[in-house]
Design a protein that fits this description.
By secondary structure, this protein is an alpha/beta fold. Helices cover 47% and strands 12% of the residues. It has one domain. Helix 1 packs antiparallel against helix 5 and helix 4 packs across helix 6.
Length: 250
């Protein structure tokens, strides 16, 4: 079976399936960016088992949601081909899900069918080509929690993706979460009513841009803070030496 075979049977287009899936998660309260039964919002990022790269935007959200729905706690996913290239295979009967991945060089989107890494016969054979450290990990120790006070779906999801990117905790008040759920559900339903199923991806792109902007601001603040600390550390010995030089002998 090819990676795209699942999309050649009688299924709606992937944008429609993705939109309807997000709506179902919103309605049953299992969307990954909402609190689970323990009141925790999961920010563990999903990566490509082959490259080690973190999935971005709506694909990150969809991957997390599908894995949650399947009862899997994997943090890496792979395609048939990636498993085969690593000299292993997807075990018979394992289930997966489709994601639409944009190819910037060809300016087109391709649909791939992914499986949890644990669905392969030899997960240890699939070694990421990149260091699996999260991007921007240099300030992970400085930022432990990302708080969101805005119910606007673009801003809320942007903050959530930011927390996923840096591996931080994500927090929002019950009031913000409830208002976000109303606004985002309305946005999704409007897209379905208008048959504009790409709307969730457009919003996901805006959320990614918001996330990128927040990360840039955080990087600048962290960089400036570390530079000040370094400069202060350099100034102290000089001040001490100057003090010793001007102190008269007794």
């Amino acid at each position: 079976m090819s990676e795209n075979a699942i999309d050649r049977v009688n299924l709606p287009p992937i944008a429609q399936r993705s939109t309807e899936k997000i709506l179902s998660w919103m309605e049953n309260g299992t969307a990954p960016f909402l609190p689970n039964k323990d009141g925790i919002i999961d920010t563990h990022g999903i990566r490509s088992g082959s490259s080690g790269r973190l999935f971005k935007g709506m694909n990150q959200i969809l991957a997390k949601g599908y894995l949650n729905e399947m009862g899997k706690d994997d943090d890496k996913i792979v395609t048939f081909k990636q498993a085969k290239d690593a000299q292993t295979f997807v075990k018979k009967g394992e289930k997966g899900f489709s994601l639409s991945v944009y190819d910037a060089e060809k300016n087109q989107s391709n649909v791939y069918y992914y499986f949890p890494l644990s669905a392969t016969a030899n997960p240890e054979k699939i070694i990421p080509s990149l260091n699996p450290k999260a991007p921007h990990s240099f300030y992970q120790n400085d930022v432990k929690t990302v708080e969101c006070n805005d119910s606007n779906p673009e801003k809320y999801l942007g903050k959530y993706l930011m927390a996923v990117t840096i591996g931080a905790e994500f927090k929002a008040s019950p009031e913000v979460i409830e208002q976000f759920k109303k606004e985002y559900t309305q946005e999704i339903k409007q897209g379905i009513s208008d048959k504009k199923y790409t709307r969730i991806f457009e919003l996901g792109n805006k959320a990614s841009a918001s996330c990128k902007e927040e990360l840039a601001q955080m990087y600048a603040a962290t960089r400036d803070g570390k530079e000040r600390q370094q400069n202060q550390g350099k100034e102290k010995p000089t001040q001490q030496r100057n003090s010793q030089e001007i102190t008269p002998d007794r």
